[in-house]
Amino acid sequence: MDDLKADFELMVSNTKLYYKRGSPEYRDAQELENLLGKAVGSVMAGEDPSQTLGDREDSDLGEFLEELFGAIMTAADSTEPSRLLNIVFQLLPSRKRYPEYYEHISDPMDLKTVAEKIQKGEYKEIPELEKDLQLIFSNARS
Question: What local confidence, expressed as pLDDT, does residue 40 receive?
Fold first, then answer.
């Protein structure tokens, strides 16, 4: 058990040294380190590690949504790669400068709000995110 634990610790340590803080690989290494600590602790206590670690589906969904959102935020015009496609959708228009927008749009939505909902874990299923993204596009067509 000690050798296995040492191997995982070395793998995590190497990953954290090689990748930048905040990168997906660095976050994965942190998660692995956390899971390993919990698993070893439960085994040493004579418990079933699967009971201690619990269900990771919510975590996996959150990671997937963050990666998907990252792809949205980096999508560029194929004919002009320096032009990001998300710029006009990042923030809602100013209520003061564009009151007519709020007269016509009953349910405003922007990418900042979507990002906040992802960070807070408010999306429990992918269709919920899809609904908000469709709302952004629908509002733009109105």
Answer: 72
